[in-house]
């Protein structure tokens, strides 16, 4: 087929469950140029007077060229075209991003993800156990006809335990391992008296800060238990060398897999991201969790339409990534607009 456009970039989103794909050719330059698009079962080719771009598909994906339909130009985006595919289901077993390295085998080392600083060295994990959901206490009250038997028995890990929540690890820190030292921080508290005045009273600071880069890694829950956030900590077997992953790539992988796991386990697709103060910063609506994104990057001067994938793609090659697609709405002043957002997933 032929169309008037000057795409420098090819983007293909394959839906495994629907056996369909959306092809997007990047925003054309002003005036456009002749373009020939050729589809084959295992490849896609775009020819322009400036050159030829060919996109090779993964072995598990095959296009059905005769099914092409819905060609249209979307201003600000480019040419859109839908086509049927024959895509094998992703039968790779989903390994939890929270415990993929926290297996109860051998010794593990906890690292700060931002700078690679060792947080806990050579910890023997005998038990790696998932925690119940956040509202499990309320459910117990509904199930029991007598007072909650677990009210006075909080779930705290023992010396060689690692408990895993939706967004954190709980670890019991022994005195001979690195552990945070709470600092005294002045806070204002109201003193009831005939004179309305404020008085400084010391309060323990429970923040756990990286010694090297000063990033907040978590918080102390008790004298022995520490909570580490999954976006700040990497756990690796002690005998394995640690390599720093780009920050934005690591965070998007963690969030993407968290959405996949929670949507599968709890049959939900709406989420919120909150700060340490409980304030909601962003609303997420999971659209697709079965997407395979295939993209061929064109000229480095081209407009980047999918910036969140830039960290994982090489400028001189085409790449395929399992991804989730979400609709998000920032809860920040003057930014309450809907956006589409793709996140690379680590389910492979």
UniProtKB/TrEMBL annotation:
UniProt EC number: 2.3.2.26
TM spans (from-to): none
Catalysed reactions, as listed in the record: S-ubiquitinyl-[E2 ubiquitin-conjugating enzyme]-L-cysteine + [acceptor protein]-L-lysine = [E2 ubiquitin-conjugating enzyme]-L-cysteine + N(6)-ubiquitinyl-[acceptor protein]-L-lysine
GO BP term (any one): protein polyubiquitination
A Pfam family assignment: HECT_2
Domain of life: Eukaryota
Top enzyme category: transferase
InterPro entries (alphabetical): UBQ-conj_enz_E2-bd_prot
GO cellular component: cytosol; nucleus; ubiquitin ligase complex
UniProt GO MF annotations: cyclin binding; ubiquitin conjugating enzyme binding; ubiquitin protein ligase activity
Role of this protein: E3 ubiquitin-protein ligase which accepts ubiquitin from specific E2 ubiquitin-conjugating enzymes, and transfers it to substrates, generally promoting their degradation by the proteasome. Independently of its E3 ubiquitin-protein ligase activity, acts as an inhibitor of CPSF3 endonuclease activity by blocking CPSF3 active site.
Oligomer status and interactors: Interacts with UBE2C/UbcH10 (E2 ubiquitin-conjugating enzyme). In vitro, interacts with cyclin-B.
Annotated protein name in UniProt: E3 ubiquitin-protein ligase E3D
Organism: Leptonychotes weddellii
